From TrEMBL:
Belongs to the diacylglycerol/lipid kinase family. This is Diacylglycerol kinase family enzyme. It comes from Antricoccus suffuscus. Keywords: Kinase, Transferase. PROSITE patterns: DAGK. SMART domains: DAGKc. Gene3D superfamilies: 2.60.200.40, Probable inorganic polyphosphate/atp-NAD kinase, domain 1. Its cofactor is Mg(2+). InterPro entries: ATP-NAD_kinase_N, Diacylglycerol_kinase_cat_dom, Lipid_Phosphate_FormReg, NAD/diacylglycerol_kinase_sf. Residues 1-135 form the DAGKc domain.
């Protein structure tokens, strides 16, 4: 079987030595070609080429941002049997997608799990989310969470390391400073229902959890699954006590997000979120620009993965 190993050398959780061990292990079972990303967007180009070149597998060693780029490249021509099967070795700071697939957060252990699945011929088909032509594998966000991610990316550009505590500190500061919460500009439009306006946060989930805080899963849509369409968790303007209550709810072992300001939907095939002003969008934890409208679609059986 031909496989393309696509590695992000800047991934935060893998050293050169670890990547060598992973490569050697995979090369024992696969006819392996190896490429390294050199700039943002490069993985999209490499994913597109992998599909065009007819690889059986694409193995990504990197974080969720690299995975998102690769998937968008692989699916540039749409889903189908011609698209390689994806395997993910976690190499980033959160590794939400790999962990949601049941893989270890340790890259060496995850490689062992992938090899075992390959030897047993195990793979699965999963649904994906799409927002205006951009694919996402586990979640997208419009509003407050995307604003936080944008600010974190700006700080990373100044040399800060992406850690759970950096995200938490940025979120707390932004909660009290953000104009989005003070004058919520967003509305959710679900076919057949009245629009829900006055929203400052909307998280669209393709699976659960939404993210992790260290080892603790944060689940805003506990029923979201790769086998269903998309779930939405949205918040209207909230004060500090109700926000803390919601935060407690989504980090429980048995998460039950609810409240007067919470709006939740399960298994939506298509919907739209609008804003009265340009606001941040994020996909799979990466800032994706400013916009006033976003059309979301859940696409079943869009990609085969090793898990």
């Amino acid at each position: 079987m031909r496989a393309l190993l696509l590695s992000n050398p800047k991934a935060t959780a893998t050293s050169g030595r670890v990547r060598e061990v992973i490569t050697s292990a995979l090369a024992a079972d696969l006819k392996l070609d190896i490429v390294h990303t050199t700039h943002r967007g490069h993985a999209i180009e490499l994913g597109t080429q992998a599909t065009q070149d007819g690889y059986d597998y694409v193995v990504v060693v990197g974080g969720d941002g690299t995975v998102n780029e690769v998937v968008n490249g692989m699916l540039a021509g749409g889903p189908g049997a011609h698209v390689p099967t994806l395997a993910v070795v976690p190499g980033g700071s959160a590794n939400v997608f790999a962990r949601t697939l049941g893989l270890s957060n340790n890259p060496i252990d995850a490689t062992g799990q992938i090899l075992e699945a390959l030897q047993e011929g195990r793979s699965r088909s999963i649904g994906l989310g799409n927002v205006d032509g951009r694919w996402f594998v586990f979640a997208a966000g419009f509003g407050f969470d995307a604003e936080v991610i944008h600010k974190v990316e700006l700080r990373r550009g100044r040399g800060k390391k992406a850690t759970p505590h950096l995200y938490a500190r940025t979120a707390v500061k932004n909660f009290y400073r953000s104009g989005l919460r003070k004058e919520p500009p967003m509305a959710l439009h679900v076919p057949g229902q009245d629009p829900i306006d006055g929203l400052y946060l909307a998280v669209v989930s393709n699976t659960t959890p939404w993210t992790y805080f260290n080892s603790r899963p944060v689940q805003v849509s506990p029923e979201a699954r790769f086998e269903t369409a998309l779930d939405v968790f949205a918040l209207k303007r909230t004060r500090t006590p109700s926000t803390l209550r919601t935060l407690w709810q989504i980090t429980r072992v048995d998460p039950q997000p609810r409240g007067k300001k919470v709006r939740s939907f399960h298994d939506l095939g298509a919907f739209t979120i609008t804003s009265t002003e340009p606001i941040e969008l994020q996909v799979d934890g990466d800032f994706a620009g400013l916009r006033e409208i976003a059309h979301f679609t859940g696409v079943p059986n869009a990609l085969r993965v090793i898990a």
